[in-house]
Amino acid sequence: MVDRPNRGAALDWRKSSASGDKDDCVEVAATGRSVLVRDSHAPSAEMLELAPAQWRRLLRHIVDGDAEVR
């Protein structure tokens, strides 16, 4: 996790269109060299920073059904 209070201010944060108006989801933003992931309920809290390869691997696990849902 990274705690960068001003890091996400100018980024284009996105969430899945499948989440609709729900707030219980994560948002992602690409910085060019990494992908940031944050909780939509706490946008100013710490965020997860992933290298592009890590992000692709995470998405592949989710799509393949390998990710554990809690």
Outline of the structure:
By secondary structure, the protein is of the alpha+beta class. The chain has one helix spanning 52-63, and strands spanning 26-30, 35-39, 48-50. It is globular, with a radius of gyration of 12 Å.
What does this 3D model show about the protein?
- Strands 1-2-3 form a 3-stranded antiparallel beta sheet.
- The longest helix has 12 residues, at 52-63.
- The mean pLDDT is 81.
- The protein is built from 1 helix and 3 strands.
- It is of the alpha+beta class and 70 residues long.
Write the SSE topology.
Elements: E1 26-30, E2 35-39, E3 48-50, H1 52-63
Antiparallel strand pairs: 1-2, 2-3
Number of helices: 1
Helix coverage percent: 10-25%
Arithmetic mean of pLDDT: 81
The CA-CA distance between the termini, in Å, is 19 Å
Q: What is the string of helix and strand elements?
A: EEEH
Total strand segments: 3
The number of domains: 1
Unreliable stretches, pLDDT < 50, 5 or more residues? none
Largest beta sheet: strand ordering = 1-2-3
C-alpha-based Rg, rounded? 12 Å
Shape: globular
Structural class: alpha+beta
The description of the largest β-sheet is: 3 strands, antiparallel
Query: Based on the structure, what is the oligomeric state of the protein chains?
Result: single chain
Q: How much β-strand is present in the residues?
A: 15-25%
